[in-house]
Design a protein that fits this description.
Largest sheet: 7 strands, mixed
Helix content: 25-40%
CATH topology of the largest domain: Aldehyde Dehydrogenase, Chain A, domain 1
Strand order of the largest sheet: 15-16-17-14-13-19-20
Number of strands: 23
Distance between the termini: 70 Å
CATH superfamily of the largest domain: Aldehyde Dehydrogenase, Chain A, domain 1
CATH class of the largest domain: Alpha Beta
Radius of gyration: 25 Å
Strand content: 15-25%
Number of helices: 16
Structural class: alpha/beta
Shape: globular
Length: 502
Amino acid sequence: MSSLATVIPHFISGQRTEPTSGRTADVYDPSTGQVQAQVALASKAEVDAAIASAAAAQPGWAALNPQKRARILVKFVDLLYQHKDELAVLLSSEHGKTVEDAKGDLQRGIEVAEFASGIPHLLKGEYTDSAGTGIDVYSMRQPLGVVAGITPFNFPAMIPLWKLAPAIAAGNTFVLKPSERDPSVPMRIAELALEAGMPPGVLNVVNGDKEAVDAILDSPVVQAVGFVGSTPIAQYIYERAAATGKRAQCFGGAKNHAIVMPDADMDVVVDALIGAAYGSAGERCMAISVAVPVGEETADKLIAALIPKVRELTVGAPTDPASDYGPLVTRDALERVTGYIQQGVDEGAELVVDGREGEIAGDPDGFYVAGSLFDRVQPHHKVYLEEIFGPVLSVIRAASFDEALGLANDHEYGNGVAIFTRDGHTAREFARRVQAGMIGVNVPIPVPIAYHTFGGWKASAFGDLNQHGPDSIRFYTRTKTVTSRWPTAPDEGSAFVMPQMG
């Protein structure tokens, strides 16, 4: 086993913990293609140690009144802001997204921690005075205990913060299993939480692979698990968590459509699609990967405007301010994306911009691919049906609004969708009828703000409660309802019928 200087360890009971499994994985610098570190892969025993640490810390943390927990969260938020530049550079170095994009990753996570700092208000229950003669009824929200998060590589700051901040604010303790591809930022987040005043054991980080995931899912101590990643794994985690009696919210893949109506402002549409399809190299679950222009004239205008914009994208080092986006996260990801491009060609889609031949400003050994644009994609093409997770935009033409709406509704995924139009009635009908969880009207990436809820439909989500916003507090707490009576006269004796309050 290498020393802690070269192996990213775990964070258990408030400290970096020497790994013991003897297993590691490489952590790459995607911009150069070189291994820059290794990360420890936890054994079941190491995961169990993190869970035990969380279980030991939970009663004391839950007993702290919500306002005191909120003060610690406020300090935590302040530290995240203070270290934002440092964290963004670290995130960029392992993920490959530009430093400015990494700052956005952090910002959207910090905003959820800010929302969670309002926990004294968010935990308030309901009260009914005199529900019956001398009877009051009230409810309270109480933490579940030890909960866990299994988070993806594409947002190594945002998604962990979305999971851990509401959970911890509500009085739970947390075990985080981040992606082993870019593990350093979650480790620093845990250290900053400790510095903010969270007691040791409130937030633990275990790095690992499927062995660590299964140890979390099989633990009788863990009461709930949140996941973001691919749909097959989301479904696996949801089913395995349910089998052991856990709550689960599991978010999977996406194929987000942007419907372009004939009356849309084409300049606005093109700028929106370029950013939404190619930003972060397309490695976003809310990326727009399908554009659906309505009518041949609209489609021809859109393609003509997109082609030069896609070709002009600057793909290079994530630290270069001139880069529009950086490399993909791994060589496997690069090969997967280029494989999809070839598959689209083989199936008969028209590849009007081939990213495999595009100019790259970065290191030739980095995991780069330029932007690709397909036209005349058909509903049976795999580039339309499957999530590519790369800088590839597919244009599928529709003859009418109803046909465009049907494409979005018939797709197995229902994460996010957008419509571009100047007509209020069309936008309203679209928002009412489309089968997706998050809707953008002239907004390409409709990720809700922190105090609303984030979540998809269909194969994009498993579980009935979403991320952040009020749903996050509902997910991480149980409701207890108390019916209270303080009699002042002798009891009237036993009753053998259901009690009535009227």
